[in-house]
Structure formats: C-alpha cells, structure tokens
Amino acid sequence: MLKIGIVGCGYIAGKHVSTISRINGLQLAAVSDINQESMDSVLVDYQRQVGKKRTISTYVDYEALLADPTIDIVVVALLSGLHATVAKQAINHGKHVILEKPVALSIKEADELLALSQKTERKVLVCHQLRYRPLLQNLQEMVAEGEFGKPYFAVSSLRLHRSPAYYQNSNWKGTWDKDGGMLVNQGIHMVDQLLWTMGQVKSVYGELDKAIQTKDTEDIATGILQFNNGGRGLIEANTITTPKNLGYQLTVFGEKGSFSIGGKQFNKLTHYYSEKQQEVDGLYALEADMDEHYYMYQDFMEAILDNRQPKVSLVEGKQALEAIFALYRAHRTKSPIDLPLKDFSTKEMGGK
Description:
Oligomer: single chain
Largest sheet: 8 strands, mixed
Strand content: 15-25%
CATH architecture of the largest domain: 2-Layer Sandwich
CATH superfamily of the largest domain: Dihydrodipicolinate Reductase, domain 2
C-alpha cells in the first residue's frame, strides 16, 4: 500500500481525492493546508468516497507532512509559485511527487528540480493529465505512426471566462511572481497538446494583452511556433470570453489528413480525415472516456513499483513551460526566441 499526502487543499485537491479513493494500493494518509476548514473538507470528501473512516493526519505546517515517515508520495497542489520549492523539499525527504502544473515559474527552478529527481532517483509526475485521455492518446499514436502524413500546421485554442472577481478572491492570482500568467496556468494544457502532437519547438514569437486592469498578468495571448520538423503552430488563448467558457480546440493539418478536437470538455472529435483510414467509429466511441486522472495515477503507481519514469515526467512537463516562457520573452523583446532557453523567470515580466 502506497500512502499519499496532499499539500494544498483547494479546489484541485478534490480531483486528486476522488481518484485516490478509487485505486487499490493507494491510501490518503495526510493533508496539509494553512486553513483547517479546507483540510476538514478534504477529509470528509475522502471518507465519504471510500465509504469508511480512516485515520488521516492533518498538518498546518506542510514541512511536518514532508517529514512524516509513513508518506510515500506527496501531491503538490498549492499556488504555482511554490510548486518547485515544495517538490524539492519533498524529494529531499525521500518522497515521490505528483506535481500540479506548472512545474515552476523559472527555468532555473525547473532544471534544479529535474537534476534533484535524477540524482535521488525519486519519481516526479507532472499533471498534464490530458496525455492520458484515450481519445487523445489514440490520435497522438496515429500522428506518430504517419496516419496523417507529415504534420504541417496545428492550431491550439483556449477560450475561457475569468471574471475580475476570480482574481480578487486570492491575493496571488494574476501576479507574475506567485501565479505566473494566464498561459502558464489556464493555457498550459493546450500548449502541451500542441507540442505533444507537433514535436520539439525550434522558435517562438508571441504577443500578450491585458483587458482586466486590476491584475498584472495577461488574459490574451497569441503565439507562432516553428518546430524542428519544419511544421508550424499557432496558439490563441484568452480568459475574457463572455459570458462563460466556450472551451478548447486543437486542429492538426497533415500531408495526408487532418483532425480537430474541441468542446467545453475538449472531448469532441469534430473533424477527422485520413487518406489511409476512413473507419472512425472506434475514435468516436472514446469521446465518453474522460477518466484520465485515474489512468495517470495508475501509471505513476506502476512507475514507482517498476522503477521506471512515468509517461509525463519532468522532462515532458518542462517542454510546454519552456515554450510559454519563450512566448513571454518574445513579447517583451518583440522578436522571435530560439529554444532551448537558458534562463527565464516570470518575475521578469514585472507589471507588463
């Protein structure tokens, strides 16, 4: 039995609790948050889902949870600016880590975390859970196997609604040093999907804008990416869509076919064409399977037991982050940025 501790008992912790409660071989053993009510809420939720009462430790000081010798895995689910710091501390206590996105808010922190995990042989899973969604996995495999020929161009879109009140209910939301930006938080999954499909990024150009003036970070972003394989990509993202979320879209255009996935839950195959394959009923049947958190946890548990890397390790988790950082720097310098980046921190964005 692998025992899990959660650091940060906000909204996202609920997704982890609902998954942990369903997997044999995993048990929630401890939680930490500065708010006792938040911890109590998580405990009640977990006990209800497992159908029995279990002893779960609570820690206002997260460092006490990290020092708990009974904990095997730590879920880092607190504000973005603390992700890398807490993950490194957890590794130094001998824990494996499930790390919510983003990995870090600087290249330096991300590289230090990767080096530490390799040195200590502790496993780190980055929560790009969409890579575990069966529909997306199948389409990605088709791209890799040449089903659509050479990928020429892809467009990744994010159209969400975040009101001024969303940023006002926490003093860290919408700040460059603690939150990191709209693309880093809301947009990173769609950037990751773009890179997963198109491959390694060669260069990035981008521009940002801000409609809600009571915060520091962007709420509009556009980016043009060039990939090592010669393909091109377009990012268009905003959190000013009214009156509510429109959703997400990824469209890929290849030499011998194309496809598009969209919808509010990013699970609708709205277009599919391939010269090689016309039978797609199996793909449409996968639209209903959105249990990616379960598959992600299963992969991580097996990675620990089999002593291998999870499918989304720090290496994969850093790629989308680095592309976003390059777009941010391109906005500041008004010029394309080549990858890999040697350095960048969201603190460089200041109030821009």
